[in-house]
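Worked example 3. Consider a protein that binds adenosine-5'-triphosphate.
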Amino acid sequence: MMEGLKIKRVSKTLNGIRIVDDVTATFLPGRITALIGPNGAGKTTLFHLITGELKADSGEIVYKGDDISKLKPYIIARRGVGRLFQDVRVFDNLTVFDNVASACFDQEVESPWYPFVKCSHLKRKIREIKDVIYSYLNFVGLSDMDNIYAGALSYGQQKLLAIARLLAGGYSLLLLDEPTAGLNPVMIKKVLEILERIVEEDKGKTIILVEHNMSAVTEVADWVYFMNEGKIAFFGRTDHVLGDKEVREIYLGM
Ligand SMILES: Nc1ncnc2c1ncn2[C@@H]1O[C@H](COP(=O)(O)OP(=O)(O)OP(=O)(O)O)[C@@H](O)[C@H]1O
Ligand SMILES: [Mg+2]
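Given these inputs, the predicted complex is written out as structure tokens:
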């Protein structure tokens, strides 16, 4: 039942350097698990390996019981792996509504009958989909801005929109790369509350949070992986890891 994501002895060498070095980690559903570590530790690269944009040299990446490490990125996405990029990506010249609407079709059912089913139910579907889209906009607090072009939103609002797109895409594993970076304290609070609500309301969702903001980590993550020079150097409960002398020396320079 509690399967989530299991990374087993994964390594990746780029230009002769072991960027990800024998990483083993488990990320459980219904939970926000943080992945922290200094700049260049390999956190984003590990995300690339999970999404399939990079292929591991060795090891296994098992999601919901299947090894996804050799699948193409779009297939991995269909298996439910979604990602919030370090730089926010929304469609500037689409409205807020259309941004979320387009995300609804990210993962279409792989069935030869799908186009027929789609046609016969289209009218009803459109109404249903509209409700669904507004439920996601409500969830992130953007329903009043449905008709605004995404390019006109503040950076923080674009991040909320990117989260709404992830939800609309139906992804069950959310890889979040520094979601609070560049946000003001009010917006950070908002984003963290949304993340907590996501795993609270859907225990099937797994969130991996890459963060440099330690108070954000303390606030939402119960468990932390600490990565350094491509390796998982430490794993444990958040207060343990952040309180560890070695972690503080390597990371916080204390
Ligand atoms: N395509 C590549 N070829 C060679 N080296 C790379 C490549 N991509 C990343 N690297 C190197 O891999 C290391 C890890 O990078 P990565 O972006 O995964 O770190 P990170 O933990 O996400 O850091 P940050 O916290 O700064 O985002 C860095 O030294 C980086 O320069
Ligand atoms: Mg990074």
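Take a moment to read the result before moving on. Strands lie at 5-14, 17-27, 31-36, 58-63, 66-67, 81-84, 173-177, 206-210, 223-228, 231-237. Residues 14-15, 19, 37, 39-45 surround adenosine-5'-triphosphate (ligand 1) (CB under 6 Å).
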